[in-house]
Design brief:
By secondary structure, the protein is mainly beta. The protein has two helices and 19 strands. The longest helix has 11 residues. The radius of gyration is 20 Å and the shape is globular.
C-alpha cells in the first residue's frame, strides 16, 4: 500500500507538485500524513512576545514601558493512519509564561489542554487533477490546563490554557498549481460549561470560529516557502444564565512559514507570525509576535 500511495502522488503531478504536496503535510498545525506515510511524530517550540493588546472596543494599546509578557510553548504531536483515507492524531502542549513589570517578574507553566482528533480525506492530493484535496477533521479538547482563575502564582503565570472541555470541526482544501499551492482552512470549536471555583457559577466560553488562507511553493529542491493570513473570533462568554457584556474577542494575524526536507523521513518546519497592530484588527486579545521551529519524522 505504501508503494501504491507513493506512485499515486508522483503520477498525479509533476515532480515539483509531488514535492509540494508531501512537504506541506507538516506545515499547518498538527498537519496530515503524506500519502505514503503510516505515522508521524513532531516536536515544535514556539516563542511569543506581547507588544500590546486590543480593548473591548477594538482599539490598539501598546504595552506600558517595562511590562513583559512572554510565552514558550512546546507541542508534541503524533499521527497514525487507521485506513487509507483516515488518520487519528494527538497534540500535547507544554506552556511556560514569563510576565511582570520591571524586576517584578513571574515564571511558571505546565501542561496545556490536550487535543485528540480524527481526519478523513474526502479527496486526496492528485485524486482529481482539477479539484483540490479536501479533508475534514473532528477533535476533542481535554481540560488539562490550569484556567486563569485557578492560577496561584504572581501575575497568573501558572495559567496554561482555557481548561474547558470542547469539541471542534474543521475543513481544509489545498490545490496545486505546478510548483505552487493554495490552501484554505476553516473551523469552529464549541465549549462545554464548567463551574468556576472562585465564583461557584457555571461559565461557558462562547463558540470560536477561525479561517485562514495560505499560499506557497517550492523555492528550491526540498524547500517550501509560503505566507498565510487568518482571523479567529470568539463569541461572548456566559456566566450563569447571562452573557457577559463586551467579552467577545477577535484576532487577525499574518505570517510566513517554511519546510525543508533533510532526508526521506525528517523534515524541519519553521514559521513566524504577528498580530496586525491597528485599531479594528483585534478585540480583547493580546497582540503578539511569534516564531517557531520544529522537526517532524514520518514513518513509511
Amino acid at each position: 500500500m505504501r508503494v501504491v500511495a507513493a506512485l499515486l502522488c508522483l503520477a498525479a503531478a509533476a515532480p515539483a507538485n509531488a514535492a509540494v504536496c508531501c512537504m506541506t503535510s507538516g506545515l499547518f498545525g498538527v498537519g496530515r500524513l503524506a500519502l505514503w506515510e503510516q505515522s508521524a511524530v513532531g516536536l515544535r517550540a514556539t516563542g511569543a512576545g506581547t507588544l500590546g493588546a486590543w480593548d473591548a472596543d477594538g482599539s490598539w494599546r501598546p504595552s506600558p514601558a517595562g511590562y513583559q509578557d512572554d510565552e514558550l510553548r512546546v507541542d508534541v504531536t503524533a499521527l497514525l493512519r487507521l485506513w487509507q483515507r483516515g488518520q487519528i492524531y494527538a497534540l500535547a502542549p507544554v506552556v511556560t509564561n514569563r510576565r511582570g513589570h520591571g524586576d517584578d517578574l513571574g515564571t511558571a507553566g505546565g501542561l496545556g489542554d490536550l487535543e485528540l482528533g480524527v481526519r478523513y480525506e474526502l479527496l486526496e492530493t492528485g485524486e482529481h487533477p482539477w479539484l483540490p484535496a479536501l479533508g475534514v477533521t473532528a477533535s476533542a479538547l481535554l481540560p488539562t490546563a490550569v484556567r486563569p482563575e485557578e492560577a496561584q502564582a504572581p501575575w497568573g503565570v501558572d495559567a496554561t490554557g482555557r481548561g474547558a472541555p470542547g469539541v471542534g470541526a474543521a475543513v481544509s482544501a489545498e490545490q496545486l498549481f505546478g510548483r505552487l499551492f493554495a490552501r484554505l482552512d476553516g473551523g469552529a470549536v464549541l465549549y462545554a460549561p464548567f463551574v468556576r471555583s472562585d465564583l461557584r457559577q457555571a461559565q461557558r466560553f462562547g463558540p470560536s470560529v477561525a479561517a485562514a488562507a495560505s499560499i506557497g511553493g517550492l523555492a528550491v529542491d526540498a524547500l517550501v516557502l509560503g505566507a498565510t493570513v487568518g482571523v479567529v473570533h470568539d463569541r461572548p462568554l456566559t456566566l450563569g444564565q447571562d452573557e457577559v457584556p463586551a467579552s467577545a474577542a477577535t484576532l487577525a494575524s499574518a505570517g510566513l512559514f517554511a519546510s525543508y526536507t533533510l532526508w526521506g523521513h525528517w523534515t524541519l518546519v519553521a514559521s513566524t507570525s504577528s498580530g496586525l497592530f491597528l485599531d479594528g484588527l483585534g478585540q480583547n486579545r493580546p497582540g503578539r509576535v511569534t516564531a517557531s521551529l520544529g522537526v517532524r519524522y514520518g514513518a513509511f
